[in-house]
Design brief:
250 residues; mainly alpha; Cytochrome Bc1 Complex, Chain D, domain 2
Length: 250
């Protein structure tokens, strides 16, 4: 075995002493071949993982004043819920009170308007009652027939029946002469229907006030409370020798 020179051992001892701070064994203390290796360096401590990146908490946008007021407004109180529940029913009932009367509940004047059309009166006298060259208008009907009973008789027997009874081709309080037109008779109209159409002509076109003794008497016949026969003949009908049996409808 090769012997290690003394000076090399001394140098090695000094180096170990400088590094480790202790005395290394001499050549006598430990043979060169049995020198223990220096302890291995301690494993490096791993660097702590970087802290996780924390996302910043988003700052909420400011609430508009109108929205804030709505959110803070008091809600509907519980006692108001029954009231809200019945509102649709109330609205339905209220609407029903605004609807016009059913067709079966026409006023006597309105019913007379329908007869005015269905009996062809509008075909000659016009829908507005203005008349034409063949039929007079109703603007002066209250002067021509001051008594509604004579007006009713004129409509019932027509101009032919009136002229036959009177023997003259004039009619009415103004002795209006015939213009050779034809006023058809309406013997099939009931007393009530006859009164309704005469009431319509006198009120709507003639300007008769819906008040007074004559109006109430005509209205009573139109409502079926009395009859034409109960009312009797008017003065002009009597003067024209119209027979009293014409008071009754056929």
């Amino acid at each position: 075995m090769t012997e290690i020179p003394e000076h090399l051992l001394k140098r090695s001892k000094e180096r170990r002493s400088a590094i480790g701070g202790g005395d290394a064994p001499t050549g006598e203390e430990a043979p060169a071949g049995d020198v223990e290796p220096a302890p291995a360096a301690a494993p490096a401590v791993p660097v702590a993982a970087a802290a996780a990146v924390v996302e910043p908490t988003p700052v909420p946008e400011p609430v508009p004043p109108a929205v804030a007021a709505a959110l803070s407004r008091r809600k509907i109180p519980f006692w108001a819920m029954p009231v809200l529940a019945v509102l649709p029913l109330w609205a339905y009932v209220y609407q029903a009170t605004l609807e016009p009367a059913p067709s079966g509940e026409l006023t006597p004047v309105d019913a007379g308007g329908e007869i005015y059309v269905s009996s062809a009166c509008a075909g000659c006298h016009g829908a507005g009652g203005a008349g034409n060259s063949g039929a007079p208008g109703f603007e002066g009907v209250l002067e021509t027939w001051p008594d509604f009973r004579d007006h009713m008789m004129w409509v019932r027997i027509g101009n032919a029946g009136w002229y036959e009874a009177s023997g003259s081709k004039v009619y009415g309080a103004t002795d209006t002469p015939s213009n050779n037109g034809t006023m058809p008779a309406h013997p099939n109209l009931t007393d009530q229907e006859l009164a309704e159409v005469v009431l319509y002509e006198r009120v709507t076109f003639g300007g008769m006030e819906e008040a007074g003794e004559d109006y109430e008497a005509l209205l009573a016949i139109a409502e079926g409370e009395t009859t034409f026969e109960d009312a009797g003949l008017g003065d002009l009908s009597t003067a024209a020798d119209v027979s009293a049996d014409k008071l009754a409808s056929d």
